[in-house]
Specification:
Elements lengths: L9 H10 L9 E15 L2 E4 L5 E7 L5 E3 L5 E3 L1 E3 L2 E11 L2 H7 L3 E7 L2 E8 L15 E3 L2 E3 L7 E3 L12 E10 L5 E8 L8 E2 L6 E3 L8 E11 L10 E16 L9 E5 L4 E4 L4 E4 L1 E4 L2 E2 L4 E7 L2 E2 L7 E3 L3 E4 L8 E9 L2 E4 L3 E6 L8 E6 L3 E4 L4 E8 L6 E6 L2 E2 L7 E4 L8 E8 L4 E12 L4 E2 L8 E4 L4 E4 L2 E2 L5 E6 L8 E2 L5 E4 L8 E9 L2 E12 L6 E11 L6 E12 L2 E6 L17 E7 L8 E5 L7 E2 L9 E2 L2 H7 L13 E5 L2 E11 L5 E9 L7 E12 L6 E8 L4 E8 L1 H4 L12 E7 L2 E6 L6 H10 L11 E7 L2 E10 L5 E9 L2
Parallel strand pairs: 1-18, 11-18, 14-15, 20-30, 32-38, 40-47
Antiparallel strand pairs: 1-2, 1-3, 3-7, 4-5, 4-8, 6-7, 8-9, 10-11, 12-16, 13-14, 13-17, 17-18, 19-22, 21-27, 22-23, 24-25, 24-28, 26-27, 28-29, 28-30, 31-33, 33-36, 34-35, 34-37, 37-38, 39-42, 41-45, 43-46, 44-45, 46-47, 48-57, 48-59, 49-56, 49-58, 50-55, 50-57, 51-52, 51-56, 52-53, 54-55, ...
Length: 834
C-alpha cells in the first residue's frame, strides 16, 4: 500500500533538495510516470507482496495541472493530491500485475498542459528491479522490528547486485517517519549517476543503515525504495526532473524499544463495509483489542482507500482509531478501504471493506407511482392479485408484503398473488418498498375471505376422463355458497354442448359422446356475491374394450324372514350371460378378513322376476361343493357347480374355501332379465354375509350386467350397508348410484322402519371420492333415473343419489350409513348408464 510519504521516490527527494525543505520550491517542477510493486516486511530475512493492492501506477507533476495521454490514446487529468497541496497526480492501484498492465500498459505516455511543452515518457520495457529491498537482521516480533531508541543500531539491507545496470540509473531511498508524534525526513538516498540535484552519487548500493536517536516508545514507518530510472531529463524544462521509473517499494514498522511486553493488536471483528448517500457521511469500523480489551495506549491507525494511504485531516476524513468517518461523500469515495493497526506489541491488517455511495435520491423514499388489485370481500377459493409500481433513479428496489403487520414469507416481489384465497388469508395487506436506505409503503386495506361466495367442493370438482365413443359421461361440479349459486357449463368456451343435459345444473350429463364432445368443460358457479370456475377435459376414443360392470357385490347383516340379504341384478341386451354367484359367510371369519359375527352357514337361492309380485326360485345351493337343487321357475339358467379354478380365474378370493366349507356358490347362464340372489342362514342362522355376482364372459356388447340392488337394515359401525363393484375395460363408465329410504316409506311401497336420511359415500379403495345425503330433486339425475328405468324418487325426499363417471378399477365400494348415525332399512342401487 502506498504511504503518504511516497510522492514518487526520486522526484520527492529532488524537490526536497531543490527547495531545501519539505515544501516545494516555486521554481521546481517534477514530472514522472511510475509503475510500482509494493511489499511489506514483518519478519527478518524477506518481504512479501502486499496482501492488498500490490501494484500501482502513478503519474505526477509538482506544479501546474496537466493532462496525461496513455499509450492507447485515452487521456486522464491529474488532480490535486489530497496529501500535498502543490502536487498533482493520477494514482490507481491494482490487485494483480496483469490488471495493472491491461489498464495502463507499458509504452509511451505524454503530459501536456498550460505553460509546459509536451513531455514524453517511454515506460518500456518492463523493468522492475530484480531485488526487493528489505532488512536482513534485527529483533522482530508480531510483525514489527524492535530498535534501541538510543540509536546506533545497524540495519543490514538485502543484496542489490543489479544496482546501476538497468536504464540510465538506479536510485535507492530509505525514509523514516514517526507515526505517533509526526515528522518525517529522508534519512538516506543515493543514485548511481551524476546529477545536478546534489543527490549523493554512489556506484555501489545502500547495504546498511545506522539508526539515529529515536523517541522511546514511539512507532516509526520505514519505506525502502529501489528504482530503475529508464530515462532522466533535466534540460527540457529547466530546473525540473522528467523520467519514467519501475520500482520496488517495501514498508515495515519500527518500535523504538529494545523489547516490549505489550500484547499485539487483534481483530475481534473485521472491518465492515458501509453505505452512504452523496453529500452525507459513512462510517467504516473494526473492533480491535489488545489483551482482550479495546486497543488503547500508544498505537497507530493507518487507513487506505484503493491502496493509497488516506490523510486523516479531521474534516473530510475523521478517525477515532478503529473507525473511519468519510464526510461530504461523492461518487469518487466509493471503493475499497483497508486499515493497519500498530502498537508496541505488533501489527494487524484488516480485510477489504467496500464503501458504497448511493445517489442523493437514496435519501428520498421510493416513489410509488401505481398500484393495482383490490382487497375487500372475496369468495372462498377466489384469486387475489395485488401489485405495486415504484421507481428510484439509480437504485435497486426491494419489496416485502405484510399481512396484519407481519412479513409474508417469500412475498418479496412487486406483485403478490393468492391463487385460491382461504379464510387464513383474511386481514390487512401492505407492501413495503425499500431502496436500501429509506422505505415507502402502500396499504391495500383489508381482505375478507367469505365462505358465502361460491367455491367448489374438492370431492365434487370435475375430473378429466376418457370414454368410449357412444357412451355417456358425467361431470360433477358442486359449489357451496350463500345464496345458493347458479351454474353454467361450457365446452371449449361455448354454451352449446352436443347431447348434454344439465348445462345449468351442477351435474352435466353428456349422452352418446362423439368427437364433437372432445375438449375442455368449464363450470362457473355464480351468486350475488361473485363467481368461481372449475374445469376438466374429455377425450372420446374408439375401442374394442369400453368400460363395463364386471362384478357386483353387497355386504349386509343377514336376519330372518324379510331381513335376509336380497341382492337384485339385471342383464340387458340379448341372449344370456355366464355368471358366478356366491353367498359368502364362513370364509369371512378367519384371517385375512377376521369379520366378527359373520354368518356360519349360507344358503344361496336365485329367483326370477318374470312376475315381480311372485318371484320363483330357479336354483338353490348350500355348501358350494354340495349339489344344487332346481326350483319351480321355468327360466333355464343352465346351473352347474362352481369351481375354485373358475373363482381364481375371475379374481374372486378363495381364502378359506376348502372342499366342504359351508359357503355357497353357483355358476349359471341366465337369459337377459331381472333376478335376485337371496342369502339366508341355514337353520335360521344370522350374521354378516356377502353376495357376489361375477361376469364370467369377456366383454360382450350384446349382453351386459347393468344393475345391482340390495335392500337391508343399515346399522352403525361395521353394520352399515356396503356394495362393491368393478369396472372393467379400458375407458371410464357412467353409473347412477342411489341409497333409498324415505321414498320407500311412502306409497306405493309403504315400507316400515326405513332410514330417515341415508348418506351415500363412494370409495376408491380406502379413499372417499364422492358423497351425497340429499339428491335435491336434481333435474339431470331425474333424467338419468328415467333413462335406466329406475323407479322415481320423491322430489321432496332426502334420499341420496350420485351420477358419476369412473375410470376402470377393481376396488370401488358404495357405502350407506345414516345421517347422525341414523339406522333403518335402505335400498342400495348401482345402475350402468350406458
Amino acid at each position: 500500500m502506498k504511504s503518504k510519504l511516497h510522492v514518487s521516490s526520486l522526484f520527492f527527494c529532488l524537490s526536497l533538495l531543490a527547495a531545501g525543505s519539505v515544501s516545494y520550491a516555486a521554481n521546481t517542477s517534477i514530472y514522472s510516470v511510475t509503475k510500482t510493486a509494493v511489499y511489506v516486511q514483518t519478519a527478518a530475512g524477506g518481504a512479501v507482496a502486499s496482501p492488498k493492492f500490490p501494484y500501482y501506477f502513478e503519474a505526477q507533476a509538482l506544479t501546474a495541472p496537466v493532462l496525461l495521454t496513455l499509450p492507447n490514446a485515452s487521456t486522464q487529468p491529474l488532480a490535486p493530491d489530497a496529501n500535498n497541496s502543490n502536487d498533482y497526480d493520477f494514482i490507481e492501484s491494482f490487485a494483480t500485475k496483469p490488471a495493472l498492465d491491461t489498464a495502463l500498459p507499458d509504452g509511451t505516455y505524454q503530459m501536456s498542459g498550460s505553460g509546459i511543452p509536451t513531455i514524453s515518457f517511454s515506460l518500456t520495457p518492463d523493468s522492475y528491479p530484480s531485488t526487493v529491498p528489505y532488512i536482513t537482521n534485527g529483533t522482530w516480533n508480531n510483525g514489527v522490528l524492535y530498535v534501541n531508541p538510543a540509536g546506533g543500531v545497524t540495519l543490514n539491507l538485502s543484496d542489490f547486485a543489479a544496482y546501476g545496470t538497468v536504464g540510465v540509473a538506479s536510485y535507492m531511498q530509505l525514509g523514516l517517519s514517526d507515526i505517533i508524534n509526526g515528522g518525517s525526513s529522508i534519512k538516506a538516498a543515493i543514485i548511481s549517476v551524476a546529477n545536478p540535484f546534489s543527490i549523493t552519487v554512489q556506484s555501489t548500493p545502500l547495504l546498511s543503515y545506522i539508526t539515529p536517536s529515536l523517541t522511546s516508545g514511539d512507532i516509526y514507518e520505514v519505506n525502502l525504495e529501489y528504482s530503475n530510472i529508464l530515462s532522466f531529463d533535466t534540460t527540457t524544462i529547466p530546473g525540473s526532473g522528467i523520467g519514467p521509473l519501475f520500482e520496488n517499494y517495501t514498508t515495515f514498522y519500527i518500535v523504538a524499544l529494545a523489547s516490549s511486553s505489550t500484547p499485539p493488536p487483534v481483530l475481534a471483528s473485521d472491518l465492515a463495509g458501509a453505505t452512504g448517500i452523496v453529500g452525507g457521511s459513512a462510517t467504516l469500523s473494526a473492533t480491535v483489542t489488545v489483551g482482550g480489551s479495546s486497543i488503547n495506549g500508544t498505537y497507530a491507525n493507518l487507513w487506505y482507500f484503493n491502496g493509497n494511504e488516506i490523510n486523516i485531516d479531521g474534516v473530510k476524513y475523521v478517525s477515532n482509531g478503529t473507525s473511519l468517518i468519510v464526510n461530504t461523500l461523492t461518487n469518487a469515495n466509493a471503493g475499497i478501504y483497508t486499515a493497519k493497526f500498530v502498537n508496541q506489541g505488533g501489527i494487524v491488517f484488516t480485510d477489504e471493506a467496500t464503501l458504497t455511495v448511493l445517489p442523493a435520491s437514496a435519501g428520498t423514499p421510493p416513489s410509488i407511482t401505481a398500484f393495482s388489485g383490490t382487497t375487500g370481500t372475496v369468495g372462498l377459493g377466489s384469486a387475489v392479485n395485488l401489485s405495486v409500481t415504484a421507481s428510484e433513479a439509480g437504485l435497486t428496489l426491494t419489496y416485502q408484503w405484510e399481512l396484519n403487520g407481519a412479513n409474508i414469507s417469500g412475498a418479496t416481489n412487486s406483485t403478490y398473488a393468492l391463487a385460491s384465497a382461504g379464510t387464513a388469508n383474511s386481514g390487512d395487506y401492505k407492501v413495503i418498498v425499500s431502496n436500501g436506505y429509506t422505505t415507502s409503503a402502500h396499504d391495500f386495506g383489508t381482505l375478507t375471505v367469505s365462505t358465502a361466495f361460491p367455491s367448489f367442493t374438492l370431492a365434487a370438482s370435475p375430473s378429466s376422463v376418457t370414454v368410449a365413443s357412444g357412451r355417456s359421461v358425467v361431470f360433477n361440479a358442486i359449489a357451496t355458497g350463500t345464496p345458493a349459486p347458479t351454474y353454467q357449463w361450457k365446452l371449449n368456451g361455448s354454451t352449446t354442448i352436443p347431447g348434454a343435459t344439465g348445462t345449468n345444473d351442477s351435474v352435466l350429463l353428456v349422452s352418446g359422446a362423439t368427437s364433437a364432445n372432445i375438449g375442455t368443460y368449464t363450470c362457473t358457479a355464480t351468486n350475488s356475491q361473485g363467481s368461481a370456475s372449475t374445469s376438466a377435459t374429455l377425450a372420446v376414443v374408439t375401442t374394442a374394450s369400453p368400460g363395463y360392470l364386471t362384478n357386483l357385490s353387497s355386504r349386509v347383516t343377514v336376519g330372518t324372514g324379510g331381513n335376509i340379504l336380497i341382492a337384485g341384478f339385471a342383464l340387458a341386451g340379448s341372449g344370456s350371460m355366464d355368471l358366478l354367484l356366491r353367498g359368502v359367510g364362513p370364509a369371512l371369519i378367519p384371517a385375512p378378513f377376521g369379520v366378527s359375527g359373520a354368518l356360519t352357514n349360507t344358503q344361496l337361492t336365485l329367483y326370477d322376476t318374470v312376475n315381480p309380485n311372485d318371484p320363483l326360485p330357479v336354483v338353490t345351493n348350500s355348501g358350494w361343493s354340495n349339489a344344487f337343487t332346481l326350483g319351480s321357475s321355468t327360466v333355464n339358467v343352465a346351473p352347474q357347480a362352481a369351481t375354485l379354478a373358475l373363482m381364481n380365474t375371475l379374481g374372486a378370493f378363495t381364502n378359506n374355501w376348502a372342499i366342504g366349507s359351508p359357503d355357497s356358490a353357483l355358476e349359471v347362464t341366465p337369459p337377459v332379465g331381472g333376478y335376485t340372489a337371496q342369502i339366508s342362514g341355514v337353520g335360521g342362522a344370522t350374521g354378516i354375509a356377502l353376495a357376489e355376482v361375477y361376469d364370467v364372459d369377456a366383454y360382450n356388447p350384446a349382453t351386459r350386467l347393468v344393475n345391482l340392488s340390495t335392500r337391508a337394515q343399515v346399522g352403525t359401525g361395521s353394520n352399515i350397508l356396503i356394495g362393491g363393484f368393478v369396472i372393467g375395460g379400458s375407458t371410464a363408465e357412467t353409473l347412477l348410484i342411489r341409497a333409498v329410504g324415505p321414498t320407500l316409506a311412502g306409497a306405493p311401497y309403504n315400507v316400515g322402519g326405513t332410514i330417515a336420511q341415508p348418506v351415500l359415500t363412494i370409495y376408491a379403495g380406502s379413499t372417499p371420492i364422492y358423497s351425497n345425503s340429499n339428491w335435491g330433486d336434481d333435474a339431470t339425475i331425474s333424467t338419468a333415473i328415467n333413462t335406466v328405468g329406475a323407479f322415481p324418487l320423491s322430489p321432496t325426499s332426502t334420499d341420496a343419489a350420485l351420477l358419476i363417471t369412473l375410470p376402470p378399477a377393481s376396488n370401488y365400494t358404495a357405502q350407506v350409513s345414516g345421517l347422525n348415525n341414523g339406522t333403518g332399512i335402505a335400498l342400495l342401487e348401482v345402475y350402468d348408464v350406458f
